[in-house]
User: What shape does this take?
Amino acid sequence: MIIQTGLVGTPKHELDTPSLLVDMPTLDRNISKMSSTIIEEAGVNWRPHTKGMKTPVLAHMLLDAGAIGITCAKLGEAEVMAYAGIKDILIANQVVGPRKIARLVNLCSRADVIVCVDDIRNVNMIGQTAANKGVTGRVLIEVNVGMDRAGVEPGEPALELAAQIAACNGVEFSGLMTWESHALTVEPIEEKKRVITEALDRLTETADLCRSNGHTIDIVSCGGTGTYWISAFHSGITEIEAGGGIFGDIRYRTVFGADLEYALTILSTVTSRPDATRIICDAGKKAMSSDAATPEPIGIPGVKSVALSAEHGKIVLEKEANDPDVGDQVEFVAGYSDTTVVLHDELYAIRDGVVEAVWPLPGRGRVQ
Assistant: This one.
């Protein structure tokens, strides 16, 4: 990948469009806020999820801010991070099948990789492959506390799997994890706290059950950006996985209630003004996601609606206006960073309106 290092020092309004930007002072404040809440106030470890970041540069920034390691969604993402020198990686997903398990075991030779499991057949295959390679793979049991996606049920089902893992060569049972995502959109906040507390009680009670039956539980992991400021303070939790909040975005703030600033934007150019209430831009669905929240234009008053097609963004105004005109730039706040970053090859770090760095996104497309 060719990175345009010659653009460092360029005013952002001189960039070609569409371009993906992150405002560095805002990013720094978001990182500091998440780090201080989780590490200093709650007193638990931080292992931020990087599935929406796609670059080791940001992962290293989080480690510098006090994170003990990182979380990845996919094995391919973990490989990118490990080869960039990151040693402590949780794959918050199941890694299944001979081809992927062989890659997982090879990665264990380079980094301390932990993988989530919920099926003893999968554990046995990981253990056998790891033993043949002469390494040990660490595993966490994923526990379903209400999301109803993957994971074993709390209590006895999790304990049974823990006992089976303990008898398996080539793997080390390190604890439990969950994702209490069913609480993300619960309102009011008192009810959200109640739902999270009930869910995490099931997780921590399962951890206690495992301990009382002789199993060592070093890790009890949970918490995304939409819940971390509650989940981090739950008794018995040892680490939090929230990471996407460093970008802020409309979904995290307005749907999930995260008190973080907008840092990620998409720079576009006005390509057409068919009439005084319509603004057409060169950033559509291929430049910014609208699947979870619609991007919002910055600095344009009286916006009635925003709609995206493949290559175009359409802003409709409530009243006629001459600005912005053809050739002017419009900057949009990202609707949902996780599904926006993956649309770009590089991320422009902006400070005081000027390009400070251009970062490749090598985790993009690493879905295997």
